[in-house]
Amino acid sequence: MAYYIVRRLLIVLLTLWVASVIIFAMLQVIPGDPAQLMLGINATDDSIAALRSQLGLDVPLLQRYLNWMSGMMVGDFGYSYTYGAAVGSLIAERVVVSLPLALIALTLSTVIAIPVGIFTASRRGTATDTTAMAITQVGIAIPNFWFAILLVYIFAISFRLVPAGGFPGWDAGLWPALKSLLLPAIALALPQAAILSRVTRSALLDTMAEDYIRTARAKGLTAQHVLWHHALRNALIPVLTILGLQFAFLLAGTIIIENVFYLPGLGRLVFQSIQRLDLMVVQSVVVLLVASVILINFLVDLAYAWADPRLRREG
After folding, report:
1. Which domain holds residue 53?
2. Which residues are in coiled coils (predicted)?
């Protein structure tokens, strides 16, 4: 087990380094001078040169990369001249919106999808199973931004139960803050729940067809006992994979939803920084999001080892 964990950690570190190189290189080939775009077309050559020096754009490319990475390793993400603030403080302000939003959406998705997947797998071929799978297919097909607009129209405009957008901040109280995140979380969760429920159902059906399941039934165990104590744990492997991917998507891919609801999260910060060509903010936020995805995948690998004893024996 220890060998398995060390090997996965080495892969994580290598992946992080490769990702940082790719992100840095891609942002350097963007056409246009960031200093010129920040200052506008009427800026003088001296002011542009001064800003390039402040941004560190006047040093060789390799030195810029090393300066950026060495700063990130000690928690210094640089300074945003567009926002007039340290990038680290900008990220800290936005992550308290994006992270709770992703956690709430993932919780809703899991609470809905796992029971639906188990319920439909235990009633394969019935009208209930067919109806549930048809509903999940619709949930997969509907874009979450369109679903978000529909939720705003029904619950915020028509019934006035929740705010249509914005975030009051956690200082305003737990319930007002959660109310502002409820509709975005539902808009993100339901399409993901549709995917997860279908994966749960398929994994359970595949597991229930295995020889050891038939042996358990031949020993006289009830169908419910076989389902909960033998099939479910072995069916968790693909479910854990989808859960890890979904959390990574919910954390890093909320740009559209955050713009629909005017939420000051990381997705909106990246969108605004790309528009303003604020490379320091874009580089740092994207690397942090990539790192979070890689870390989540590492935790999923550890969950694999917990669910599958064969991986522990490999270690």
Report:
1. 2-87
2. none
Q: Are residue 24 and residue 60 in the same domain, yes or no?
A: yes
Q: Which of 87, 115, 149 is the last residue of a domain?
A: 87
Mean residue pLDDT across the chain = 85
- 282/80 Cα distance (integer angstroms): 10
217 and 167 belong to one structural domain: yes
Asked if 243 and 136 sit in the same domain, the reply is yes
DSSP symbol at 126: S
Same domain for 101 and 71: no
Mapping DSSP onto H, E and C, the string for 156-192 reads HHHCCCCCCCCCCCHHHCHHHHHHHHHHHHHHHHHHH
What's the pLDDT tens digit per position in 277-287?
788 888 888 88
pLDDT band at residue 309 using 50, 70 and 90 as cut-offs: low
Q: pLDDT tens digits, residue range 242-286?
A: 888 888 888 876 788 998 899 999 988 988 888 877 888 888 888
State phi, psi for 199 to the nearest 5 degrees: -65, -40
Give the end of a domain, one of 23, 58, 87.
Answer: 87
Bridge pairing between strands 79-80 and 85-86: antiparallel
